[in-house]
Amino acid sequence: MFAVKRRLSNIESSGEEKKKFRTTHDDKKLINRFENLSNELFYEIFDYLDGCDIHKIFSSLNSRFEALLNCSSLQLKIDLRFHPEPILQYYSTCVVASKKDRIISLRWPNLDDYNSGFTLFNIDSSFAQLESLVLGNIESNQLIHLLINLISLPRLFSLTINYDDDLLEINNIYQIIFNLPMLKYYKLSFFSLESLFPTSISIKEQYSDIKYLVIDHCCSLDMLIAILSCTPQLYRLTCKQVNESVDNIITNALNAIFSLTRISIGSCYAEFDEIELFLINISPQLQVLRISTFRDVTYLDANRWEQIISQHLLHLNVFDFKYEQPIDEDFQASVYHERLNQFNSQFWMKREWFFRIYIDTNFWNDNVIVCSIFPYRPIRGNSHEEKENDESFNENINQNIIQQSVIPSQEEFVAFSKILSETYQLTVIDLLYSEFDETFFDIIRPILTTVKITCLNIILNKIFIGTLIDLIKCLPNLDSLVISSLTMIQPRCLSVEEARTFRFLSNNNKITKVNLKQMNDLEQVQFLVDLCSQMKYFEVNCTNDVGLEKVLRFILMKNAKYMPN
């Protein structure tokens, strides 16, 4: 018996050794196959890796990889952000210092995250291949010294600066930047209170070949004009925030930039008169204009926009416009609100620029009404710089999450063509648990009735049915109803007046098309069927909690009541 066990044990041991040998053999075979790859293919692989990771993985393998890493044709991209101080110091000494002449892209860490005495290497003319540089927060005296050194770099095409120090140095920073001979892309991010930022800038007459400019800080309109006077080759302009001018704008100070085709302004607080003068004179070749504005209600003058575009911006094919206004006790409907319907004229329809009006009650705890014009066809950049610029504007500047949920994609547009009217739509966003009082509806009713809204699109998870009834009451022309999810909360019973309104609306509203994108309870279907007695089209996406058979049975039984014998 023991002999059998011993024999079995020997067999198992032998099997494990064979398995181990086979695994080791396969690993060696895999390594051999990996090493058989050509140098060119390895360089292709290295192109997708950070230079510090390449050093960490391949530097100690064998002599062949050591030779590959030391080859003068290997170009490196180095990212020094988010490393602990000892590792950062190691990479600075062992990677950057010995390979600085082959670095084409460098991301500098935020030195505020390290000890006050911590210093890094200097960037000077020895970085002869450097094409792209991203700088974290650096003290102003160090930054100015570093920027002066950058003038000697023959291939620096892209520069991004994150700055948070002395505001008085902004003038010097721009002055030095415009002296960089090869720079094509420049972004300056500054995080400061608006009231502390300088309202003007004085730049000696000089010209830069910058084509992509991202001003990721607030600036006055006259400060913007002073900056643009130094960039006659500019192709694309993105601004975080533009405030009204301090001095009166003189038309002669606005030099046309004929290469400028795209302008994006995340938050515009300048008056419409100033912006109109700016747009008329800055570039007759403008193709894309994106602007979000506040305060000045004259921005809602559709006829004025039509005149600007048709007479001065003849090449404009994308107009992305947003106007926000708080709904509070000081809100008053103006003549411009009454003329919002002019945004649906043939001029706008022909260009496929669509009008939206929506209510956002989750805007810093305030109710905000938003009017917007947006193009149906999305615009895609054709270059890396355009893509980077788009991402900068969309993610860091505009912060417009609303647009992603309101504007349908190409597929959604086709799928919901029956239910979603591209014009005359009111979108209600983030009502959450709010119950509006009658004063709120009295404030917005003049606007809603003027625009003749035919589609109500509710993007929220829960809504009090009394609120929904009040909304529909304000929209006598409503034909389509789109609801993301109707989980009807009922903090109280409907009042006698609300119940009477519900009965009146159910018999007199014009809603014929309803889309409930997520149904969780049969009661939701019952409510919508009772409310929309004229309904001809009903689209429902059922969840697992409610069977499709129950929904069909209810609808068929409901229809049977109206069928003749």
Written description of the protein model:
The protein has 565 residues and is an alpha/beta fold. It folds into 3 domains: 30-74; 79-351 and 378-396, Leucine-rich repeat, LRR (right-handed beta-alpha superhelix) (Alpha-Beta Horseshoe), CATH 3.80.10; 425-560, Leucine-rich repeat, LRR (right-handed beta-alpha superhelix) (Alpha-Beta Horseshoe). Helices cover 38% and strands 21% of the residues. The chain has helices spanning 2-35, 39-46, 51-58, 63-69, 85-99, 140-150, 170-177, 221-228, 272-282, 302-312, 335-338, 346-350, 384-398, 401-406, 410-415, 438-451, 465-473, 496-508, 522-531, 548-560, and strands spanning 76-79, 103-107, 132-135, 158-163, 185-190, 212-220, 236-243, 262-268, 288-294, 318-326, 353-363, 366-375, 425-429, 455-459, 462-464, 480-483, 487-489, 513-519, 537-542. The strands form 2 sheets. It has a 17-stranded mixed β-sheet, sandwiched between helices. Strands 15-17 form a two-stranded parallel ribbon.
Short description:
The protein has 20 helices and 19 strands.
What is the secondary structure topology, with strand pairs?
Blueprint: H1 2-35, H2 39-46, H3 51-58, H4 63-69, E1 76-79, H5 85-99, E2 103-107, E3 132-135, H6 140-150, E4 158-163, H7 170-177, E5 185-190, E6 212-220, H8 221-228, E7 236-243, E8 262-268, H9 272-282, E9 288-294, H10 302-312, E10 318-326, H11 335-338, H12 346-350, E11 353-363, E12 366-375, H13 384-398, H14 401-406, H15 410-415, E13 425-429, H16 438-451, E14 455-459, E15 462-464, H17 465-473, E16 480-483, E17 487-489, H18 496-508, E18 513-519, H19 522-531, E19 537-542, H20 548-560
Parallel strand pairs: 1-2, 2-3, 3-4, 4-5, 5-6, 6-7, 7-8, 8-9, 9-10, 11-13, 13-14, 14-16, 15-17, 16-18, 18-19
Antiparallel strand pairs: 10-12, 11-12
Helix pairs in contact: 6-7, 17-18, 19-20
